[in-house]
Q: What sequence folds into this?
């Protein structure tokens, strides 16, 4: 599937900030981002409607986007190279910091459950009352396993992207305030809240 010319700037920007991605990954991400912006929604059907308005039809983009979300061996045409999402975390934070103004950065550490099925452990940048997810880990819900090692690992993965002169504040729910998290924060942050 060809990338619409309107989405080429998105692909160029993604390739610049996430240079470790393969061309097919850049193309798929540019298609998702461009269509999401065009649709003003992250809803799958709205994204497909936006692509259809560009004359791309419905079924081909639907299958392409569905396949793009799957990992290597789960695709219709299996790929031996698994997608390493975690390799994107530090570059993603660097991308956010490239347009950041000011010496302070606030990160929010938050677990979000989808019923009993899944728990998303997310580290986000707080920006003008909104959050921009920059690191995450998806866990099976309803299991009694500690989250703290995962949050500490996510913060460690973001550490290389944070300039040493930047003051970082970490926000979390009271239930996450443990000595182990406070011990992990100084590697990535100078101030914990």
A:
């Amino acid at each position: 599937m060809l990338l619409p010319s309107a989405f080429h700037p998105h692909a160029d920007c993604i390739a610049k900030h996430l240079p470790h991605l393969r061309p097919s990954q850049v193309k798929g991400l540019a298609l998702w981002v461009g269509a999401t912006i065009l649709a003003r929604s992250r809803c799958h059907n709205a994204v497909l409607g936006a692509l259809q308005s560009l004359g791309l039809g419905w079924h081909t983009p639907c299958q392409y986007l569905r396949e793009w979300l799957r990992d290597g061996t789960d695709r219709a045409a299996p790929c031996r190279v698994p997608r390493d999402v975690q390799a994107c975390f530090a570059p993603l934070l660097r991308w956010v910091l490239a347009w950041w103004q000011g010496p302070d950065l606030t990160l929010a550490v938050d677990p979000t459950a989808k019923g009993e099925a899944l728990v998303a452990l997310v580290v986000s940048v707080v920006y003008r009352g909104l959050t921009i997810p920059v690191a995450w880990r998806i866990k099976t819900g309803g299991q009694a396993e500690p989250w703290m090692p995962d949050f500490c690992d996510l913060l460690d993965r973001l550490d290389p992207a944070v300039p040493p002169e930047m003051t970082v504040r970490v926000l979390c729910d009271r239930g996450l305030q443990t000595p182990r998290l406070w011990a992990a924060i100084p590697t990535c942050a100078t101030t914990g809240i």
